[in-house]
Amino acid sequence: MPAGLNIAARRRRGCRARLFASLLALPLMPLFALALAGTGAQAAVPTTFGTIVGNALLCRDAVDNKYFYDYLLNAFGPAYKHDGGAYWFKSDGATLWGVEISEVMVSDDTSTFVFAGAVAETTPEQLEQAIAAQVGMQYAKIDSSAFPVREAKPASRIVYFDRKSKIYCAKFQPLPPVQPKAVRQR
Fold first, then answer.
1. 3-state DSSP helix/strand/coil percent for the chain, to nearest 5?
2. Helices 28-38 & 3-25, crossing angle to 10 degrees?
3. Counting Cβ atoms within 10 Å, is residue 23 exposed (0-12), middle (13-18) or buried (19+)?
4. pLDDT confidence of residue 63
5. Is residue 158 very low, low, confident or very high in pLDDT (cuts 50, 70, 90)?
6. Buried-exposed string 171-182: b where 16+ CB fall within 10 A, e elsewhere
7. In what order do the strands lie in the sheet with 81-83?
8. Residues 89, 83, 163, 78: what is their CA dihedral angle, to the nearest 10 degrees?
9. Which end is more exposed in the chain, N or C (fewer Cβ atoms within 10 Å of the end residue's Cβ)?
């Protein structure tokens, strides 16, 4: 038997063995998935979280509440509350600019503003410094209160949220005009 034929036969035999092993594993995959679901394991934070949500919070991208609602629903599961004109999602394990993000929210359609926001597990001062270090965006205090609101040029804002901070981008979205009732004609 020529040497080249022997190598080809070994390759076929190796392929058959891998195919056989993968076919044996197929019936076990649904059991593994059920076991994983039963432990309450959450899906990992999407790799696009920083790009998509981060840019929206900095007002560097369009803010479409329907798109963000679907994105957050797929990433973190159903919203855990609907409050203040927004759907709130727990975002365990998420980080932006090196800061832990515990909650993300997106507006519903009850306001003239469409917005996306997030709760950062740090003070507004530290969040501002993290964003400046990572992105270079500078915030200015726009009031002189004890808990000043910080705003960047594209309209992104950082505010106090208890002992944490909230960052959001809100854009005006006019509601459709109310149509007057039709006048009855004869």
1. 35, 25, 40
2. 40
3. exposed
4. 86
5. very high
6. eeeeeeeeeeee
7. 81-83, 86-96, 99-107, 113-120, 164-172, 157-161, 150-151, 140-141
8. -10
9. C
